[in-house]
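Researcher: Sequence recovery benchmark, item below. Answer with residues only.
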């Protein structure tokens, strides 16, 4: 991969998730037992939103610990190399979203009526995921970091 300028790297961070429709979310319970699942998502002003059943352990984990780890990854069917899939990952602060209707409208815009039934299910809640430091990998040895304020932090090109 050609070395990218700082401006190009920031653009990659901003645009990476535009053609991705689900994310992988990992959480842990109060005893640090890990749990991983996936969810469709929407993004608003840099924050991610998912809709999760309050009956599931993920919801409890995220509400109690206020933490999750997120992975958005290139589809393996389109990746140049299975081991070097492009990916964005970050730790997130989690909180229940108070304006669920606004977020459900974003889900409608992004997914059409495929997810509209969730708004009528009483156990589903919208969780806001606020990214902390983010990492973007664009192939072998092409790893970049962005701080939680959205400033480009570092890059690593190549392997030893």
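Model:
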């Amino acid at each position: 991969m050609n070395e990218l300028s700082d401006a190009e790297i920031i653009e990659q961070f901003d645009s990476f998730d535009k053609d991705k429709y689900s994310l992988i979310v990992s959480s842990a319970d109060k005893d640090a037992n890990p749990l991983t699942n996936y969810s469709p998502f929407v993004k608003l002003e840099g924050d991610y939103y998912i809709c999760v059943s309050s009956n599931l352990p993920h919801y409890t984990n995220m509400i109690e610990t206020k933490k999750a780890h997120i992975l958005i990854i290139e589809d393996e069917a389109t990746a140049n190399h299975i081991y070097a899939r492009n990916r964005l990952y970050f730790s997130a602060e989690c909180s229940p979203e108070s304006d669920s209707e606004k977020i459900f409208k974003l889900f409608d815009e992004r997914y059409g009526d495929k997810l509209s039934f969730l708004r009528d299910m009483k156990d589903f809640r919208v969780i806001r995921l606020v990214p902390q430091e983010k990492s973007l990998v664009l192939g072998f040895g092409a790893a970049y970091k962005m701080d939680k304020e959205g400033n480009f932090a570092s890059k690593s090109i190549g392997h030893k």
